[in-house]
Design goal:
It contains 10 helices and 10 strands. With 291 residues, the chain is α/β, with parallel strands linked by helices. The longest helix is centred in the middle third of the chain and has 15 residues. It is globular, with a radius of gyration of 19 Å.
Length: 291
């Protein structure tokens, strides 16, 4: 399979077949992200994608899940996505679910009917980097979306029957807006009420605009325990109806797998013990953390 450049996928897609249908990210302006800064966004030719699907067919069943790379394959119009999904269904009949990254731009450009069409063709889950519910932080990190658009995205995906996995970033509000970021993100999570939520911890990557902001004193990353305090706010204040909530990404200091609200009190008790002790030995060591 012709995978070009660095390839990224969510933790839950670790065993998935990876099919690259676009190069890079059509937005590619988020100040914290360096995932696609070495790529010029463009769709890959359908002929190349079909060849890759044929390669996956010849390798045989390795997983029942497939993930569409790169950053936001969902930005492609249905006339380009549907032939890809149809080829996956035809050539890889063992694939039960197709996933992709998506955001407010890629989802809200499609009607519910178009999203439903994609779901019927095999698209099962969209991973959405919301990062924060604080509009001021959204602006400062050049996220390119709004709270209202995030809520609209959640509603459209729910109406189309596509699972929605929301990604949040601890620490992205800087020390200055740490509490505001946590509270606003918890309230946005309540309004979106996704079935899945994955929390990551901000890492300042050299060469990114966020690293420049840090060097200039315009951004100060909260410490590990301050970011765990943000996590506590998310868990305590978000009202969810049945969300698989995890912090199992390699960047996190404290891995958690849970279902909210079922496990809320147990998680809060565990977090409170860690926050009271403030013992670094209770956290994942820095050398084990990564992007």
């Amino acid at each position: 399979m012709a995978l070009e450049g660095r390839i990224f996928r969510p933790p839950s897609e670790a065993r998935s077949v990876l099919l690259q249908v676009t190069l890079g990210c059509s937005h590619n302006e988020c100040v914290y992200c360096d995932m696609y800064r070495d790529k010029q966004f463009r769709p890959k030719p359908l002929a190349t994608i079909l060849e890759d699907i044929a390669d996956a067919r010849d390798l045989g069943p390795r997983s029942n899940k497939l993930f569409l790379c790169d950053g936001d394959a969902l930005i492609l119009p249905n006339r380009k996505l549907l032939p890809i999904l149809e080829a996956i269904r035809s050539e890889l009949p063992w694939i039960e679910r197709v996933g992709t990254y998506g955001d407010t731009r890629s989802v809200t450009r499609k009607t519910i009917a178009e999203l439903t069409e994609l779901r019927e063709a095999g698209l099962g889950i969209v991973y959405h980097g919301v990062e924060t519910g604080d509009e001021a932080v959204m602006h400062s990190i050049t996220k390119g979306g709004t709270r209202a658009e995030c809520i609209d995205t959640a509603q459209r995906l729910r109406a189309a029957g596509i699972d929605h996995s929301v990604i949040l970033l601890l620490g992205i509000g800087s020390v200055e807006r740490s509490q505001a970021h946590a509270e606003a993100t918890a309230s946005l999570l309540t309004e979106m009420d996704p079935p899945y939520c994955g929390v990551l911890t901000t890492t300042v990557v050299p060469g990114t605009p966020l690293a420049e902001l840090e060097a200039n004193g315009a951004f100060t990353l909260p410490g590990p325990f301050e970011m765990l305090a943000e996590l506590r706010v998310l868990i305590a204040e978000a009202s969810l109806t049945g969300c698989r909530f995890s912090t199992n990404h390699a960047s996190n200091y404290l891995p958690i797998r849970s279902i909210l609200p079922r496990d809320r009190e147990a998680i809060l008790d565990a977090l409170d013990r860690v926050l009271e002790a403030r013992d670094p030995a209770l956290l994942k060591p820095e050398f084990l953390r990564g992007l």
